[in-house]
Amino acid sequence: MPSPTSAIVAVGAHLPTGIRTTEQTERRLRDENPGRGLPVGLIRRMTGVDRVHEREPGEQASDLAAHAARRALADSPEPVDLLIFASASQDLIEPATAHIVADRLGLDVPVFDVKNACNSVLNAVQVAHAMIVSGQARRVLIASGETPTSAVRWRLADRHQFVRSFPGYTMSDAGAALVLEAATAGGCGIVDLAFSAASHHWRIGTLPTGGSMHPRDPEATYFDIDGRGLQRAFLALGPELITDLLARRGVALADVDLVLMHQVAEPHLAPIAERLGLGVERILPTVAEHGNLASATLPIQLRRALDDGLVSPGSLVLLVGLAGGISLGAALVRL
């Protein structure tokens, strides 16, 4: 009897129409910090990001997730029996944001949240796949709503604070959704997944608010990230997670039709891709046009690749996730 697996049968993306250009970001920083001598053009030169997406006032992470989920469910309207909200963002500490998304969608199914910074969606795929293969679910909706623009620091105490806040200026709000359902191995579906972590790096990038360390500190509501340290940490990772994943499935990198990879800054893309054993020419670039989309990056890239005809049913796609903490993940998927 063929082995069970799960397949991605629908992909939804929601990019807010509100746009903040990098020039507007720098202008606001200069206006709110007169006399600090903030350099003109630095963000664009250092990151390659032209613009970011901003949600409407009053929109929550659950709203962005629900927008994307409706699009995914319109493409695959059969009932789901589980909803996973997967995001670095959340509406509230409690209850799980998945409940709010389910309420917005009118769903009466079990729900829970999965959170692992920018790998939240990829880890949710891991969980959904395991639950489908084990028979605990048949069709799973994964919905993500990212609202990192809430944590951008505009008023700066000094240059050091500007440097630690820098990665936040290129982060975008976004929504994304996937529907996974039971399938038979050998056709379309999740071929394999692999994950690793180097958790001693957790201090490199934080958003401290709301936890037991900083329950009520207003200063903890902003990103505090060592951007160069984060890049060095990822460059210290070897290619083994990805090369081993491909090897155990007898797949050569040349057999992969497209690589989708989380992107923080354009100059970081090539060195990290090469360190992981991936040719940058195989990677779909999105960070210049859309900024850092956090955990929504991979499904939004997949939606774009499908819409642009870069992949189609039968294509073999490698999804590569990078996240603060730090963690690395990969999923080999036959569409």
TrEMBL record:
GO BP annotation list: fatty acid biosynthetic process; secondary metabolite biosynthetic process
Entries under InterPro entries matching the protein: ACP_syn_III_C (IPR013747), ACP_syn_III_N (IPR013751), Thiolase-like (IPR016039)
Start and end residues of each Beta-ketoacyl-[acyl-carrier-protein] synthase III N-terminal domain: 112-197
Gene3D superfamilies reported in the protein's UniProt record: 3.40.47.10
Organism: Agrococcus sediminis
Coiled coil: none
Identification of the protein by name: Ketoacyl-ACP synthase III
Domain spans labelled Beta-ketoacyl-[acyl-carrier-protein] synthase III C-terminal: 246-334
TM stretches of this protein: 310-333
Domain of life (superkingdom): Bacteria
Record key words, sorted: Acyltransferase, Membrane, Transferase, Transmembrane, Transmembrane helix
Mitochondrion found in the keyword field: no
A GO term for molecular function: 3-oxoacyl-[acyl-carrier-protein] synthase activity
